[in-house]
């Protein structure tokens, strides 16, 4: 398992997204390659990075907000599919990996 911390310039990313915890995902049918959470807050959205069939990068975030504990559990287990159950939307938070 690879877990990274990455600081982002929030002036470029549209929000307070410093210190995201990033995890690379194993190969899957949905072409999601990484997920990220903000571990230094009480609640967080889950962010996903995928690759479209044409090879273009896709950036998503959960519509729902997760508690830190729940988000960490999903994060360490690589359970990116919980974002689909809660609903997801295109994200303005991009280029975090």
Tally the beta strands.
8
Mean pLDDT: 86
Global structural class: alpha+beta
Distance between the ends: 16 Å
Question: Number of DSSP helices?
Answer: 3
Beta percentage is 25-35%
Biggest sheet strand order reads: 1-2-3-5-6-8
CA radius of gyration is 12 Å
Largest sheet: 6 strands, antiparallel
Shape field: globular
Order of helices and strands: EHEEEEEEHHE
Uncertain segments of ≥5 residues (pLDDT<50)?
1-16
Q: Would you write up a description of this structure?
A:
By secondary structure, the chain is of the alpha+beta class. The chain has 3 helices and 8 strands, in the order E-H-E-E-E-E-E-E-H-H-E. The chain has one domain (3-90). Helices cover 20% and strands 34% of the residues. Strand 5 (47-51) and strand 6 (57-62) form a beta hairpin. The longest helix has 10 residues, at 68-77. The model is unreliable at 1-16 (pLDDT under 50).
Note the topology.
Blueprint: E1 3-6, H1 10-13, E2 20-24, E3 32-37, E4 43-44, E5 47-51, E6 57-62, E7 66-67, H2 68-77, H3 82-86, E8 88-90
Antiparallel strand pairs: 1-2, 2-3, 3-5, 4-7, 5-6, 6-8
Characteristic terms for this protein:
single chain; 97 residues; alpha+beta; 6-stranded antiparallel beta sheet; two-stranded antiparallel sheet; 3 helices; 34% strand; globular; disordered N terminus
């Amino acid at each position: 398992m690879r877990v990274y911390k990455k600081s982002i310039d929030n002036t470029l990313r549209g929000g307070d997204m410093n210190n995201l915890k990033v995890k690379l995902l194993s190969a899957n049918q949905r072409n999601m390659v990484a997920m990220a959470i903000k571990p230094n807050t009480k609640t967080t959205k889950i962010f996903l990075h995928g690759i479209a069939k044409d090879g273009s990068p896709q950036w998503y975030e959960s519509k729902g907000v997760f508690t830190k504990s729940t988000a960490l559990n999903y994060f360490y287990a690589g359970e990116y599919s919980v974002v689909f159950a809660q609903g997801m939307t295109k994200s303005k938070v991009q280029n975090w990996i």
